[in-house]
Design brief:
Length: 391
């Protein structure tokens, strides 16, 4: 049986993070949404139904029996049970929202998430977590961190770490190969999870809930507040609060990052800061790609949303509720615009469109430092995003 994750209409409101990946490939909690489902359903492989230009990098694979799952919905025990009980031709539905459907190979070829009238609807009355806007990621991260922590650690024993550390509470778990020295871990407010080969350097103070991905580091003197997720192959320093870094991104120096989400291959220069709270405590508005206008998040705390391969030079200041697209390079004094288009080069005083050839060259060099190949599929995706951004 094949598991396929489909993007629904929330894909548009989740831009710029969904420019470069299916929604189920978003990280929230410890795992990506797809990884959560795969673990719960004991699936060794899965695939995606997404935008055409992303489909080559994230191919669709069908078999004799197929379960299509809404990629914006995070799993839990009740959803898991309901999906496992589906028969071919049955769809799990909440009001007018398709959660999942089980289809034969023939039906799978013509699947369309917006038209499921031909399937037998099974009403789902329970509640669940659905990611619709970028700010949902950090807002709901604490709940997902706790669920993932239980999913990954129940019935297991943490690896031992150095006695030079101080651990408060009992909700600490380190995978084999994780290391820490002279750090404090406070799990009284939420669990802390260190993935294999992750490192916490001397003098760091971490409060749960918190997850540190494989091969990632918290640098010396790091101050990390819950609910924060540092994905695989990332490096962080300074002060971080209630934020998510997907993977391969760096905030390696002093400066504040709060109520924010960074995609992959992002970098914040030394002493870069973002505001996450307005002086008058009013609700924060941010750019919504689905309506091409600002929308009210309903939140008083909302920081920076940054798409893949975007960078900020030293001492960059991001205002409350700033949204940065894909492949942007921001530098200079003062506060830049609150909505920075993809492939923008510059800052407050002037901006221009980043040369696509120079972007490809830079991305290839940046990724090679981490021994990751910048593939033709990556290049094709970026070409399409560039074209869409400059129409």
């Amino acid at each position: 049986m094949s598991i396929l994750f489909f993007d629904d209409a929330s894909r548009e409101s989740l831009l710029p993070l969904s420019f470069t990946r299916p929604v189920a490939d978003f990280r929230i909690g410890i795992l990506t949404i797809a990884e959560k489902w795969a673990k719960r359903l004991s699936a060794t492989r899965y695939s995606f139904v997404t935008e055409e230009y992303l489909q080559e990098k994230f191919p669709k694979k069908v078999s004799a029996e197929n379960v299509f799952i809404n990629g914006s919905i995070c799993p839990d025990e009740e959803l898991e049970k309901s999906i496992k009980s589906l028969q071919v031709g049955e769809a799990l539905v909440s009001n007018s929202l398709l959660i999942a459907v089980k289809l034969s190979e023939k039906e799978a070829q013509s699947f369309n998430y917006s038209d499921f009238s031909s399937y037998k609807s099974i009403a789902y009355a329970g509640s669940f977590i659905k990611i619709t806007y970028p700010e949902d990621l950090f807002s709901l991260n604490d709940a997902e961190l706790r669920k993932d922590f239980n999913l990954l650690t129940t019935g297991r024993t943490s690896a031992k770490i150095s006695a030079s550390n101080t651990i408060l509470g009992n909700n600490f778990f380190a995978e084999e190969g994780a290391s820490a020295e002279c750090a404090t871990f406070n799990t009284l407010e939420g669990p802390i999870y260190l993935a294999k080969n992750s490192q916490v350097w001397e003098g760091s103070h971490i409060r749960g809930s918190f997850a540190l991905g494989e091969h990632s580091q918290v640098k010396m003197g790091g101050k990390i507040y819950g609910a924060t997720t540092i994905g695989p192959h990332c490096r962080v320093g300074g002060e971080v609060n209630n934020s998510i870094l997907f993977a391969y991104s760096s905030k390696g120096h002093e400066g504040f990052l709060g109520n924010s989400v960074l995609g992959e291959w992002c970098n914040l220069g030394a002493d870069t800061n973002n505001s996450n709270l307005k002086n008058n405590f009013s609700k924060v508005k941010i750019w919504d790609y689905s309506i091409q206008d600002n929308t009210n998040t309903g939140l008083t705390s909302c920081g920076l949303i940054m798409g893949d391969h975007s960078k900020a030079g030293i001492n960059t200041m991001f205002n409350t509720g700033t949204v940065v697209g894909v492949g942007a390079n921001i530098f200079g004094g003062g506060f830049p615009q609150k909505h920075i288009h993809s492939f923008t080069w510059g800052g407050v005083n002037s901006t221009e469109t980043y040369s696509l050839d120079k972007f490809h060259e830079s991305a290839e060099k940046w990724m090679s430092i981490r021994n990751v190949q910048y593939t033709e599929e990556d290049k094709t995706c970026m070409n399409t995003i560039f074209q869409q951004s400059n129409q």
